[in-house]
Amino acid sequence: xxxxxxxxxxxxxxxxxxxxxxxxxxxxxxxxxxxxxxxxxxxxxxxxxxxxxxxxxxxxxxxxxxxxxxxxxxxxxxxxxxxxxxxxxxxxxxxxxxxxxxxxxxxxxxxxxxxxxxxxxxxxxxxxxxxxxxxxxxxxxxxxxxxxxxxxxxxxxxxxxxxxxxxxxxxxxxxxxx
Length: 178
Fold this sequence. Notes:
alpha+beta, six-stranded antiparallel beta sheet, three-stranded antiparallel beta sheet, 4 helices, elongated
């Protein structure tokens, strides 16, 4: 709708100017000035209400590679990437191959900064819980990982890994960092 208003305003400005010029030449009033003023207002309203498409990914809370604020992750691409990362870690820690994690079988969230008992602070902490498939059966798992940068494609440290098949493998005692 805002693009329509902007386009009508732009066309109206041109028509108003043309009518003003014709009115000056013929010495008659064609109301070109009023049409031009109303069209300028429509054009400004159209431009002001147009959604900003430039830079939306910078303002977005979730992108394909990270989440800005703590909370549940709903971005499909981010969930897929976390599922693939989970598959790799499950195969490593459970010592099995051909694991499949479907993004529909996991929930993920970005957590607030965490610290361990030594006081080391972990930033960019993501928690993934769900199920993986192996040999036609489903198993539960939980994974907490801290990335060096807020980008799940970067390297990270596994802070907790626990699955139904292996039990707790890694479990750093974490508390909320203040």
